[in-house]
Amino acid sequence: MQEKDKTETDSIAVKEVVMKLKRLIKLLASRWTFILLWGCIMGGASLCYSIFKKDVYTGTCTFVLEDKSQGGLISQYAGLASLAGIDLPGGSDGIFSGENIFALYRSRLMIEKTLLTEADFNGKKSLLIDRFIKFNKLRTRWKNKDKIDSIAFTGDPQKFNRKQDSIVTDIVDIINKKYLDVKKSDKKLSIIEVDVKSIDELFSKEFTNKLVENVNQFYVATKTKKTFQNLQTLQRQADSVRIVLNNAISGVASAIDAAPNANPALLSLRVPSQKKQIDVQASTAIYSEIVKNLEISKISFRQEKPLIQVVDPPVLPLPVDHLGKIKAVVIGFILGLFIAIIIVLVKRTYRIIIFNFN
After folding, report:
1. 56-224+309-321 architecture in CATH?
2. Which parts of the chain span the membrane according to its record (predicted)?
3. Which residues, 6 or more positions from 342, have their beta carbon under 8 angstroms from its beta carbon?
């Protein structure tokens, strides 16, 4: 008995679904002109969009970043180097570990430096910021609004006036939000991908190249700055001690020349040369240790220097994001049908709830 009731209930539920579906189809069929009109309107709007939409070119550069932590031979000599006041790093400092390298690419410092870098556009040298201003027609807007269409960005950025700094800041923000994308092509790999999108193909290519070049140079210089400073300090110490050692050797020779046939019985005549010899021995020992630490510091500098190798630079012609007219019409038409159906169903539901209309 229970199985029979359950069967009848299921049959009623299926019939209700079928009836509701039929009513829905009937409702949509009765409003077919409204739905078709929306499809045509959206299709036409999409066609206009595809006609006026400018192609977007993407400059992509991928490079490998390998940053080895220090250890092994360097750590064995760290104690020896500390005797001379030299701090040899023993591991990864984490300055640009994780996602920090991406933040460096998006920093104002790097983007501004790239914008103020000169590039070659079809044989003509021009600042990247001037190229950006040109294809975005910003000078026309400035002329109509602020009367500053003749503003230039040559010279030292530190001497820019308030208006120049404001414009650069605005352009940096725009590039960060709309033009630049930095990511790892694979989270398991050390391959970093830099994408720059714009409606100017040459700008996308040159800005990508210059940005990668500037950031990588800054990265290497910063990672090796401490070791390089230690290396310069040791080199100056070695040069200074070498001068002292040379003077001491010359002093020994001068002291001997002062008494070439000294009476062996007169020991006081040998004192000056012996003092100079002690200076030579001391300077030799100090110079030997400094040279040893200098070589260790050179090894540390070479090993701490990260390997950055560009894999795929942007090459013309760049990939282009182009929306075809037929594709735009089809997408717009389908979207219009979907919107119209939603409107019809919402209005039907509203009438049922408010007016209890069935």
Report:
1. 2-Layer Sandwich (3.30)
2. 32-52, 328-346
3. none
Cα–Cα dist 213/196, whole Å = 14
Residue 28's Cβ-side half-sphere holds a number of Cα atoms within 13 Å equal to 15
Please tell me the distance from the alpha carbon of residue 104 to that of residue 101, in angstroms, as a whole number: 5
Of the candidates 219, 207, 178, 200, the one whose C-alpha atom is nearest the C-alpha of residue 306 is 219
pLDDT over 80 (residue 270): no
Backbone φ and ψ for 73, nearest 5 degrees, come out as -60, -40
**pLDDT tens per residue, range 93-120:** 455 554 677 888 889 999 999 999 999 8
Question: Using CA atoms, how far apart are residues 49 and 332, in angstroms rounded to an integer?
Answer: 10
The three state secondary structure string of 150-176 is CCCCCCCHHHCCHHHHHHHHHHHHHHH
Q: Which of 293, 301, 171 is nearest to 225 (CA)?
A: 301
3-class secondary structure, 248: helix
Going by the DSSP 8-state scheme, the letter that residue 59 receives in this structure is: E
Give the model confidence (pLDDT) of 115-152 as tens digits.
999 998 888 899 999 999 999 888 888 877 766 767 88
Helix (H) or strand (E) holding 56: strand 56-66
